[in-house]
Design a protein that fits this description.
The chain has 179 residues and is of the alpha+beta class. Helix content is 20%, strand content 58%. It has an eight-stranded antiparallel β-barrel with strand order 1-2-3-4-5-6-7-8. Strand 5 and strand 6 form a beta hairpin. The two termini are 49 Å apart.
């Protein structure tokens, strides 16, 4: 019985301290309030439209045979304008449906492929500072027309549809939330 009273007393003291308004004293309630405030800092969904340029660093290009196809890897950047302002930098990996010698001697977009770009974005969305990860994925048709999406995460959430040309860029539209 004595130990139960002691535990109850200790609990009351801890709750009293954590609910105190004294400067410099923080407790579980302060952390919960800060977390809730941080969560409420997320902007609502923003309709995002604009254009982007694809900047490819061909000095980083590697080609690796994969059966009768070619695995291409290259570094680059997507530079956004419109609702999204800023750059997403990273690496693109593509399985090109041609042999590596064919890919090495042809302009980008000559052969169809499936690709994935893992990117880190920094800039603004609808005027608000934003940073996060982006995955640009899809397929390029013969001639270089891209059917794909940009999927944002870790600081930004949402999906953008693209209308683009391989190694050139294009336009985007979709909805994003900045956390």
């Amino acid at each position: 019985m004595k130990s139960t009273k002691l535990l109850v007393f200790a609990g009351v003291v801890l709750v009293s301290i954590s609910c105190a308004d004294a400067p410099g004293i923080t407790g579980p309630m302060d952390s919960a309030v800060a977390l809730a405030a941080e969560s409420s800092n997320a902007t609502g969904p923003v309709a995002a439209t604009g254009e982007y340029d694809a900047i490819v660093d061909f000095t980083t290009l590697t080609l690796t045979p994969r059966g009768s196809n070619c695995l291409l890897q290259v570094d680059g950047q997507l530079v956004f304008s419109g609702t999204i302002e800023g750059a997403a930098t990273g690496t693109t990996t593509a399985l090109v449906f041609a042999t590596c010698p064919e890919v090495a001697t042809a302009p980008p977009g000559t052969y169809p492929d499936v690709f994935k770009s893992e990117l880190a974005f920094e800039g603004t969305i609808a005027g608000e500072p934003a940073a996060g990860d982006m995955m640009y994925q899809g397929r390029s048709q013969e001639g270089g027309r891209i059917e794909g999406h940009v999927i944002a995460s870790r600081g930004i959430a949402g999906v953008l549809d693209v209308d683009a040309q391989l190694a050139v860029g294009g336009s985007y539209s979709g909805s994003l939330v900045v956390h």
